[in-house]
TrEMBL record:
Protein name in the entry: Acetyltransferase (GNAT) family protein
Keywords: Transferase
InterPro entries, A to Z: Acyl_CoA_acyltransferase, GNAT_dom
Molecular functions (GO terms): acyltransferase activity, transferring groups other than amino-acyl groups
A Pfam entry, by short name: Acetyltransf_3
N-acetyltransferase domain mapped to chain residues: 44-182
Species this chain originates from: Kribbella steppae
Gene3D superfamilies in the cross-refs: 3.40.630.30
Amino acid sequence: MPILTEPTVAVHRSFLAAWDEAGPEHERWMGARTIAGDEEEEWSRDQAEDPGEFARLIEVIRTEADPETELAPDLVHQTVLWFVDGPEWLGRLSIRHRLTPALEELGGHIGYFVRPSYRRKGYATEMLAQSLPFAARLGIDPALLTCDTDNLPSRRVIEAAGGELEDERHGKLRFWVPTRTS
């Protein structure tokens, strides 16, 4: 059964295949850049192919969750989790530890991406469900999730997790999802 886990080198080959599938329009979801430190750092597909660079990419992604890691004033710490099934990289999920005004309007606490060849299998629903205890441990309850007004599949995922529609802003639907089960 697929699980959400910290990024791992065990899925290196599959991650690269997913990057190829996702294409340039979804490159940001592959996590090939970091927000940590003074300057953003980006990895190209060719760089990520090198096992040492891939391991470094993972380490830098993990630092984004550490409250001691310095970020630009308009950015927030985030926990990045990968959805994997053994050696297969199926998707990525980010839990932003707090909301900025921009995230409150457009981005929310949680964002997710499912590898194109694994869509329509219920994985987004499972990823979101598995992420809620992580969010709760970060003190987030409820979590804000947003989706485009015309993105019916994402709306269904959020509603399946108990999301309550608050409103629409700037072409985005805004839902509050409880993270605690009791």
